[in-house]
Amino acid sequence: MLSAELVLTRTVLVWAALKLDEQEKQMMAQAGVDSADFLAYMARDESEHVNAGGNFSIEVIRKCLEVMQLHCVSVQSEEAKGVIADPTSEQVLMLPFSCQFWRDM
Prior knowledge:
This protein is mainly alpha-helical. 46% of the residues lie in helices and 0% in strands.
């Protein structure tokens, strides 16, 4: 069971998404604010890190976990084989509230 201080709230996730968006904007601007890539980036309607439905990118989740000194691994990775065999060996197991989001990716 996660303690309350380790729960990722929507507010924390939105903050991380905005922070990542700002970092990307700064990186894109380094090529020049008049460049075609920067102008196309700025013309986007939506963040790459959170969509209108409130789903967050894996980068947002990873960023939040890093702050808590945790890391995210794919269940398909070599590192996860032991976890799949014995999930009780881990301190945290994170699953989405809705699997529909992951099926749509």
